[in-house]
Structure formats: structure tokens, C-alpha cells
Amino acid sequence: MKRINVIIIGAALVLGLSACSVQPKKLTRISIASQEWVGYGPFYLAQEKGFFVQDGIEVFFIDEELDSNRRDAFKAGILDCEVGTIDLLVSKRAQNTPVIAVLELDCSFGGDAIVADKSIKSLNDLIGKRIVFSRDDVSETFISYLFHKKGLSLKDISIITRPPDKVADVFLGKEAEAVVTWEPWVTRALARPGAHILVSTRQTPEVIIDTLNVREDFLKNNPQAVSALMRGWFKAIEYLKDHPEEGSRIIARHYKITPLAYRQSIERLKWIGYKEQIDPSQAKARKEIFDLIAQLKFNNGRISKLPDSENSFDSVLIRKIYENSQ
What we know:
single chain; 326 residues; alpha/beta; D-Maltodextrin-Binding Protein, domain 2; 2 domains; 6-stranded mixed β-sheet; globular; disordered N terminus
């Protein structure tokens, strides 16, 4: 497997390629950035099984937790794609980032959660307590959504801010009474004695959707390459279903967990199939949650304007891919 070291620093993209990673010039190169989330595993599987190369593209992955770095890289024209939650798409569109969603990847079905100590039995019990999560990220969106439904306010909790990969440690150190996070850190947080899942996306699967986002000019100039990336994704999902042990063994290495732990983690999400992508009711639900998240972010002062959900998604390619698959 080719080794590629990639980091984004501000708006600069730095690549390190080993000599053995040279691919034929005919391959279209695509960069794709993400945070750490088990739902993105099929992209790694597609890479290692050769699905991308077979379809004429060379994909390299960028592990970048800071959404602001990905935003700046998009604006500078040095990042092609990202996978991320719909709330991050909302923020980017509100900040005039030239990026558009072309594919829904998955929805969280228990993979995101509030883990609390044993003294907290309901959302109301969080009032006045110390809650740790990453600001301007999906965890803030999740708790904001839950509080909105209950008529509660984030102003009534004591927020501790940490990067996504550090929030569980704060909770384990008993510096907070609850943590809002996602897998694999939900499982890590549950190692605290007495800890339990207060609420998860199993009860609200509509709120956290992952999308494949592409820089608009890259999409315009390279539609075939983007289609190849999408087809590789679907091939990998099918391969994982047919070969769960081999597929999870390949993917688990990227998350530094066991294959069994990976299989257990993905039980808390649902991948979204071809046909669902073009269902009018799915598109309507996607627009509604985009607009609600935008309103919550605007009300909480996280964005300065409301983005247009109608122009934030492009379903042309997925329709063509679905039609060609029939």
C-alpha cells in the first residue's frame, strides 16, 4: 500500500510521498480530508482493494481534525474533497466556502452520544453541570439540537472545550459530569465507572448525516473523477457486507482498533444506499435538517448568516450513477 503523509497547515497543503508510491500519470489525483470517524472506513477499504485505481483515480487521505484548516484549504484551492457532518457543511456554506455536497454517506444511529456519570438521569439534570465537547463541531450541534427540542439553553451549562480526540479524557479524569462525543470515543468514555449513555443518535438518527463535499471548481472540471470516487465508496460498502472479516481487518488498522471493535462500532451507524440518495423524501428531510442546524448555529452566534440549503447539494452525479447501476 502506498504511503502518503499529508497535513494541512493553515491554507498550505504539505505532501510527503515515498518513491514507491508513484502512479501512472493517467490517474486523476484527488485529495480528501476528514476527522476520525468509523463511518468513513469504506474509503480506506476502496483504496486498499484497488477500486479507485481501477476507475482511473489516485486518492490520498488527509487526517485533519480542525474544520477551519479544511475550510481555508478549500478557499485556497488546495483541497479537493472532504467527508464530514452536515453541520460542518452548514458552517462552510455560511462562510462562502466554495464547496458543495454530492453524496450522503451515512447517518449516525447511536454512534454519537452524551455519556454522563451516574448522577445524571435526564437532559434536565445537565443544567448547571460541567459538559465537555468540541465547539463548532458535530457534538455542539448534537447537544444544541437536543436542548432545542427540550426548550433548554446551552447558557445554563458549564462548557469545557477540548479537541474531539481529548474530550473523553476530560470526562475520564472526572473534570466533567458529561461528555458529548462520537465513536470510538463514546466507548472510551464508558470506561469511567458508573458512566452511561444518557442519549444517543439512536433516538435521533435524523440529525447527524455525513456527506461527501467537493470543491465546486474541482467538481465542474473533474466530474468523472468525482463519480469514480463515489463508485469506489459504494463498491467498498458492498465488499464489506460480503466480506465482513477481511473488510473490517483492513479498515480497523486505520483506526488502531481490533476488527471486532470496528464491526461493533459500525452497528451504530447506517450507510445510505444508492436509491435512498435520490428519494424526494430524503432530499426534503436533508434540506430541513440543514436549515434547522443553520438556524441553531445562527441563534448561538456560531455563524453570521444563514446559508441557502437549496444550493448546498448537487445530486446530478448520484442520479447518473444510480441510473447506470440498474
